[in-house]
Every structure is written in structure tokens, then in C-alpha cells.
Amino acid sequence: MSHAPPVPYAGLVSRTVALVLDTVLVTSAIVVLGTVVGLAISLFVPGNTHMHVGVGLVAAALGAWWLILGIYLISFWTLAGQTPGMRLMGLRIITVEGGSLRLGRALVRLAGMVLAALPLMAGYALILVDDRRQGLHDKLAHTSVLYGEDQDPNGAPLTPTVAEPLPSAGVGDLPPPAPAERRPRTA
Questions:
Q1: Measured in Å, how far apart are the chain's first and last C-alpha atoms?
Q2: pTM for the complete prediction?
Q3: What residue spans of the chain are helical by DSSP H?
């Protein structure tokens, strides 16, 4: 009797670490780019380049940061099925049907992430109690986050256009090894 292996749904901690890694990556890139642009402006613009940082500039910078982070997440989810942070943590995002995310679903998932954060992160707490470890954003977008980079929820190899789960061979399905040939001992 062969049992299906447990589905490798990703938990809250590994998903959070992946998102933190992605956020640090995006923020670092923005800081480096901002430093280079600021240095270039100070070198090539004559006169006093001292700029007063007001509330409007801070709000615009935060808005730009959120926009860049959103574009980053959506781009990686739809093009690669995982962000660099998810890749480092060995995670992959797929639809509940086993396929790749498209732009519409990725946008719904991103909006769901914002909604999940609003009531004191309660939408993310669903990951702790749901059988498939889906947060509010996953339920809205019909997505799953799995451990392993190339399996669907049924353990089958994942391809970009999975219509039906493919059968997978477990260790118990392998034929037994052939018996070794025995030779008589000579003394």
C-alpha cells in the first residue's frame, strides 16, 4: 500500500523570512540607486544643492518604495514563480490548480497582502490554522506557497502549464533490486 507524501505547504516563518529578504533586497537597491543619483547631482549641478526634506518628499519616497516593491513581487511571481527571497528559502508560488500565476492573480494576491495586514496581521494568521497554510491573500488569489521548487500540491513535477497532476513515483514504487550472484567460497 503506497501513501501519498505529505503536501509541502510552506509555513508562516519561512514565508516571512522570504518576504523580509525581498524587502531588504529592494530597499538596498533603492538606497544604492538614490546614493548614486544624489552623488551625480551634487557633482554636475553647480551651486547649492542642499535640499530640504519635507513631508511631501517623504510621502512621495514611501509611495515610490511601495510601488517598486509591488512591481518587484508581481514581476517575479508571474515570470519565475518565486522571488529571490523565496528561492533562497526553497519556496515556490503556484495556483491551487497547479499552474503558474498570471498578472491578474498576482495583482489580486498583492492587494490581498495589503488587506491581510490591515486588521493587525490577522489575514496572515490564517496561515497558522489553515490545512493548506493559505493566508487571506492566498485565498483571494487562489494560490499556494510550497516548499520545493518543482512540485505541485500533489507532488507532481511542476511545469508552467499543468492541466492535470502528473503521477509521481515514490520510493515504495521502485522494483526491488536484483539479488546479487553468489559464488562459492574457495579455501
A1: 45
A2: 0.74
A3: 12-44, 55-79, 84-89, 103-117, 122-129, 136-141
